[in-house]
Amino acid sequence: MREVATAKPLWRVKQTGLTIHRKKLNLSPSRFILYASTVVVVFLIICAMVPQWIAPYLPTDMQADQILLAPEAAHLLGTDYFGRDVFSLIVYGARESLFIGFASVIVGGLLGGLLGACAGYFGGWTDRVLMRFNDIIMTVPGVLLALAIAAALGPGLWNIVLAVAMAAVPNYARVMRGQILSVKNRPFITASRSIGATQLSLFMKHVLPNSLSPLLVMAAIGVGTAILTGSGLSFLGLGVLKEVPDWGALLSQGRGYLTVAWWICTFPGLAITLFVLSINVIGDELRDALDPKKRQS
Fold it and tell me: How far is 237 from 235, CA to CA, in rounded Å?
């Protein structure tokens, strides 16, 4: 009787352990999408940083006997009208496209965050003047504003970054101002002020750190929008004028061959779509992670 009683709990422990192990292997669809999006973003960032590790050919290699070849083993995504490998063009073009996306978000986030922080924290006439100026800019659609700035400044990498950044500044300013207003009158701010904390100390140590979460989430999601806007400007001929085109320029160059060589503009468009979707998935996950209501639940 003792041997039977001892064997039964051991069998249950093994069965329980097997069940726990099987649960660990069960990956939810949302987790799978997040991991897949992270892989896509990391891969494209590697392509932008070290394209020579990924691309099988140089983007300037022109082969007259391999013009407009369909996707095959030697050229996974086909060749264009100059005999260049489309996959290599996409890999090398990722550097300019991703730089425009990330740099414009950094510049726009800093300028908009500073504008909104000053308006929300100081209030009064400072808030009224800055926000009325911000409202005037917001009356112009972001893409149209970026197009006007890019047309005025002319083609160039930093001109495109500035154009895309300025189009996003009003949204960052509005979000930052609202967050500052919700934080600056909280009890712990009042307590810090009552014990003699200076205005600069209150802003730098308490108000600003507790107001950055929405701005970070907005910046993460804004990378995809910035790349779309930058690609649109490049598609219209206002992008970077270099021998290695970015994704928007590849779309523009391949549109004339859509009926005879669909792969020239289809695959750069898929690269843009995959990156924007992936960065939006990561941004949504970051928003959920920084949301205090979801952390408490």
Answer: 5
